[in-house]
Amino acid sequence: MTKRILSFIFAVLLTMSFFVSAETEYETDISYYEKFKDQNITINVYNWGEYISDGGDDSVNVNSEFEKLTGIKVHYTTFASNEQMYAKLKGEGTSVYDIIIPSEYMIARMIKEDMLEEIDMENIPNYALIDDQYKDLLHDPDNLYSVPYMWGMVGLIYNTSMTDEEIISWNSLWDERYFGNILMFENPRDAFGISLARLGYSMNSEDPKEMEEAAEELKKQKMLVQAYVMDEIFNKMEGGEAVIAPYYAGDAITMMDENPDLAFAFPEETTNFFVDSFVIPKGSKNKEAAEMYINFMCEPEISAANAEYIGYSTPISAAREMLDLDEEIMAISYPSVEVIEKSEIFRELDPEINKLMDKLWTEIRSYNESANDWIAPIFILSLFLASITIIVVRAVKKKRSVQ
Amino acid sequence: MFKAKAVSVPYLIWMAIFIIAPLVLVGIFALTDAEGSFTIENLSGIGRFTPVFARSIWLAAIATAICLLIAFPMAFAISRMSERRQNLFLMLVMLPMWMNFLLRTYAWMSLLENNGLINRFFGLFGIGPFQMINTQGAVVLGMVYNYLPFMILPLYSVMTKIDNSVIEAAQDLGASNGKVFSKVIIPLAVPGITTGITMVFVPSISTFIISRMLGGGGNLLIGDLIEMQFLGNSYNPHLGSAMALVLMVIVLFTMSITSSIDSEELEDMLI
Known about the structure:
heterodimer, A: alpha/beta, D-Maltodextrin-Binding Protein, domain 2, 2 domains, five-stranded mixed sheet, three-stranded parallel sheet, 16 helices, 14% strand, B: mainly alpha, MetI-like fold, 13 helices, 76% helix, 0% strand, globular
């Protein structure tokens, strides 16, 4: 009897697996993916939060599809920023991860510090599907270390019910009419990039004078800024708390879904173009399995599922063609050549400039005209005096009681 | 004696690994540069962050004072209730803490916003909207809300031990209500006050997410500054450690003062 039940279950499972493999057709040969089947391998993937199609809202659960197809287990964890990921890796010494998906300037830093393995493109046949314009980029000129996952651009998201103006320039972020209704990036790289671009400089400027000038502008802007935000922007823009903010196009689409009053525009000045790519850190124990994962993620079907779910743009045109999006969204996700040509990709800056930027950024953020520089020293001094008096008073008392 | 030592071994090991060793590491990091050679540049460079330190100390002090003002009568009232009601009220005090800290702060964010619940309520009467979010007041509110239980609980635990007969004795001897309060209740509650002040002031001065969510990121606190050194653009754990060290010194000073005030001296001061 049990045998019969078992065989029945087996039959069901077989037909199910047949359906699954019949449903999705992959570019790469199935036998390629079956190389590590039954070997009980686990790979550790470290990605941005909310940056993969995870099965929510009837989407494809990409990781479990991969597990089903290859028998490799995926242990998936997320980070909130490039810097957080970098600090974690540095702190741990050796990496426990097999795949990480940082942005280009962080990849440049990691290459420079010898933290990455070279990727064997032979093992990633789907690399050929990636459009040429996302290869040979500044951070990895010979395509040795990274495979593009998603790309996107920074632009301006604004609430059409709160302004009649058509937003076309970074200048709107300095417009006094929007006093208290402007949100600004909470990270220095993006904030300085915008301030530099508005002044007509390169977003990768390494000239201290230009940086100081950009910082001056940001200080002026601070009076108008309602808040410096990262993820808090979703809540604030969707709730109509602010008129205008710079943000990533992919996330802007998510916000526009929630609040139809929101619109998105690319500025006429330079803007930032970013690419997040797969890399394999030094210390990866399953490099070939990791490469298989990268190849799987480059399957047009999978890439399209991811792009559709997260709202960012895929570098694979075969995947883009599968997307079923309306024109407005397409114009944001895949802007015209002119917009892309005007944009700049972040380069890893000179460490001295990075330091200067951080110093200026702290100054801007803690800049407050009414602040009194003397409170802290006086407070510490009075604490010090208070503890001394207490000690003295005690000593005197003891003496008295002895007498 | 011997037994007591043996029992404390697990904690001593825990302390050595997770408290002493990290503290030593912070010290080492603060006094070295990226190449690992000795420098005091990190510490001396902190001077330029004076406004941030000032703001943190100021806001944390205000929050602590407000907490004390709210918690003291509250704790006293609870300590005079019947046991069943005491348990109920203590549970109510603890109730918000069952929910995640971030969620609570996030909830305040949507309450205080210009289109938030509170301003919409005012809007019904045609007043407002008031600017509440992204102000220093909002940051203080966040601190008070999140850390109030840490003030109430130590105060309560001290006050339950104050015998009613002590208060009655004072009244019998002709002390007015105000006198009873200042001469009997406050001195007896001093250990609770000092613990409460430490437990509210310390997390308030080092918090970072509250100022970011409710202060709009324009009111940087020390905690934000330290976070920026580790998770920010430049990854400078040495400067971050130096800041943490200075923060620890400030906290140590406050603690040493609050703990050295015993009831006797307070009495002297009150006279």
